[in-house]
Amino acid sequence: MRHRALRIFLLLLATVWYGAILPGHERGIVQLPGAQTHDGCCVGDKPVGRAGEPVPVRSPSNCAVCKFMGTLSAAPPPDLGIAPLGPTEVAPALTPTTLVSLRVIPTYLGRAPPAAA
């Protein structure tokens, strides 16, 4: 029962991730480490947070979700093509072997058991 619950959980997790979170996330909402703060040319351009520190800019090019999905490596599809057909080599001719001796077993055609000799 434990394995079935785990499979259902993973199926639901993948469904929510690929069906809702990934297509619906706002690009840049989750930043990669080392995100740069706003680098406007004027002092008044910088957005300021509650404590007075500059607010980091949410650049779509620095989105952690997009980076994660872009760097996943998928397995290549299987190659189901048929190999080219043709002769590969000529088999050597086999020489037939002759029988040296053959033991003949007589066939009993009667209906009764064989008579003792």
Structure summary:
This protein is mostly helical and 117 residues long. It contains 2 helices and no strands.
Provide structural commentary.
With 117 residues, the protein is mostly helical. It has a domain at 2-35 and 53-71. The protein has helices at residues 2-24, 64-71. The two termini are 74 Å apart.
Stretches where pLDDT is under 50 for at least 5 consecutive residues are 38-43
Radius of gyration: 40 Å
Quaternary structure state of the chains depicted: single chain
Strand proportion: under 5%
Give the averaged pLDDT, no decimals.
76
Instruction: Please trace the helix and strand order, writing H or E for each element.
Output: HH
The total beta strand count reads 0
Given the C-alpha coordinates, what overall shape results?
elongated
Task: Draw up the topology in text.
Elements: H1 2-24, H2 64-71
Keywords:
single chain; 117 residues; mainly alpha; 2 helices
